[in-house]
Amino acid sequence: MTAPAPILSLRSIRKSYGSVEVLHGVDLDIYPGEVVALLGENGAGKSTVSNVISGTVQPSSGEMTWLGAPYAPSSPRAAMDAGVGMIHQELKLLPQLSIAENVFVGRYLMKGGRIDRKAMEDRAQAGLKRLGLDIPPSRLVEGLSTANQQLIEIAKALTLNARLLILDEPTAALGGDETQLLFRQIERLKADGVGIIYISHRLEEIRQIADRIIVMRDGSKVQEFDRGDVPVRSIVESMVGRSLDRMFPAVPLPGDEVTLTVNGLTSPTNTFRDISFSVRKGEVFGIAGLMGAGRTELVRAITGADPIARGTVTLNGQDITPRSPIDAIRNGMVLVPEDRKLQGVVLDHSIAENIGYANLPELTRGGWITARRLNAFADGFIRKFGVKGHGAQNAGELSGGNQQKVVLAKWLARNPRVVVLDEPTRGIDVGARSSIYELIMDLARNGVSVIVVSSDLEEVLGVSNRIMVMAQGKQAGILDRKDANDVSIMELATL
Questions:
Q1: CATH number of 258-493
Q2: Would you say the pTM of this structure is higher than 0.70?
Q3: How does strand 449-453 pair with strand 418-422?
Q4: Which of 194, 246, 308, 441 is the most exposed place for a label (fewest CB within 10 A)?
């Protein structure tokens, strides 16, 4: 039997921005009914390749063929019309539109010259149901959790009837159950002959879902594996170009002194109920649970970003129950939020300005801030945290890992006593993850209390002294490090 022809071929694709070439002659074939994992560190060129295929970016040179014919999409719409759909890592939903309107934006269904809202809502509901999401399609996107917004992006792609789907970090905000639902949909798409390019930093997922693995580094394709069940260590060493001894650093033992106490905390909407725990000085306290368990809502309330109906937050024996983020910040407690682009950095402002915004009292002299003082202050933290960028560069030009380092830099410059990290490595490559884990341990060694919320079980197990598991808004239990594993956490998370 003759081998099937590829649905998409790239030959010698190059891309330059000015004098800087970011893609160096990339060759790639995608066949019908296969999942190709495209892996690499942030800045390796994965997103640029995806953007070239999806029409967002035009290549500087090289050729592409689609279904055997020349292919050069001039826009994402042109790619979509050809049968190529892409789910971006960064959410692109319009908050003031309904779920159904977002699913069909730019291609509204029409009937008799008018928008057929019922047909759109019916088809959107079918896509949501396939992913286990029980939300009315007429509801506005505004106010939905990051995880639910990610599922809506995926439902949007499922309605395209595309021949090729590019999934860029589709499970970054999802828990285990939601991820498995997505994987079942991917298997159905494969059976229908759909080709899939799958980009993820969750390497254990790759072993489950990929048929082939392509590794990129510094804008070039450096390795191709003809199967998906490749040892994680082999993949990582191909990505970083060196041997990797261990992912997680040693977790220091905390002292006996209690820094933070949360007692009976309950939200006005019952998203979480009667939560009580304490965090010791120098402790890394993990919070785990499935999507919808109330983890993010809890830490937002602890840090003043969301309201509290009942309960108290005590810092060093003093009741500081915050009514706003500034209350928490003034008392030495800061939050690094799960969505860095929407809540962590101002994308079209410089790195120096972003670091400065959280440290205005330190920078102000007589009511004024000079550019010289701001730049000197920011440059010190750019070097300290290894941000790959310069102070005048816009934060939006940085990779996800470097944006996260900017968010960390701006808050840690305040020398907080409690640092709350919500999904600290979401969408971040292996190399950047390792540096963030080292940073967490440095904080703990210096006596800072750290709370880490993570959907990644390996991560929360790897960095925590103790782990609180939440289930359906309730506190299911707190596990010591020696007693915590995948099974014990999932048993509590599914109570």
A1: 3.40.50.300
A2: no
A3: parallel
A4: 246
Q: Please, which pLDDT band fits residue 173 given cuts at 50, 70 and 90?
A: low
| Cα–Cα distance for residue pair 56/179, rounded to 1 Å | 27
How far lies 224's CA from each of 36, 273, 338, 397, in Å?
A: 10, 49, 32, 29
Judged on CB neighbours under 10 Å (0-12, 13-18, 19+), 57 is middle
Question: Measured between alpha carbons, how far is 361 from 302 in angstroms, rounded to an integer?
Answer: 24
Q: pLDDT tens digits, residue range 217-245? A: 888 999 999 988 888 778 877 876 755 45
> pLDDT of 388-434, one tens digit each?
788 888 888 887 778 888 988 899 888 999 999 999 887 776 667 78
CATH superfamily of 8-240: P-loop containing nucleotide triphosphate hydrolases (3.40.50.300)
Query: Residue 478 pairs with which residues in a beta bridge?
Result: 468
Confidence tier at 316 by pLDDT (50, 70, 90): very high
Instruction: Please report, for the chain, the start and end positions of each structural domain, with discontinuous segments joined by +.
Output: 8-240, 258-493
Per CATH, 8-240 and 258-493 having the same topology is answered: yes
Angle CA(169)–CA(233)–CA(454) in degrees, nearest 5? 45
Rounded Cα distance between 170 and 168, Å, is 6
Tell me which amino acid residue 397 is.
E
Selection from 351, 489, 338 nearest residue 425 by Cα: 338
Those residues whose C-beta lies under 8 Å from the C-beta of residue 99, and which sit 6 or more positions away, are: 124, 128, 135, 136, 137, 138, 139, 140, 141, 152
- Residue 493: both structure tokens together: 């998370």
Give the pLDDT score at 431.
Answer: 67
Q: What is the DSSP letter of 116?
A: -
Helices (H) and strands (E) in the chain, counts: 17, 22
Number of C-beta neighbours around residue 254 at 10 A: 22
- Contacts of 222-231 with C-beta under 8 Å, sequence gap 24+, read 228/35, 228/37, 230/206
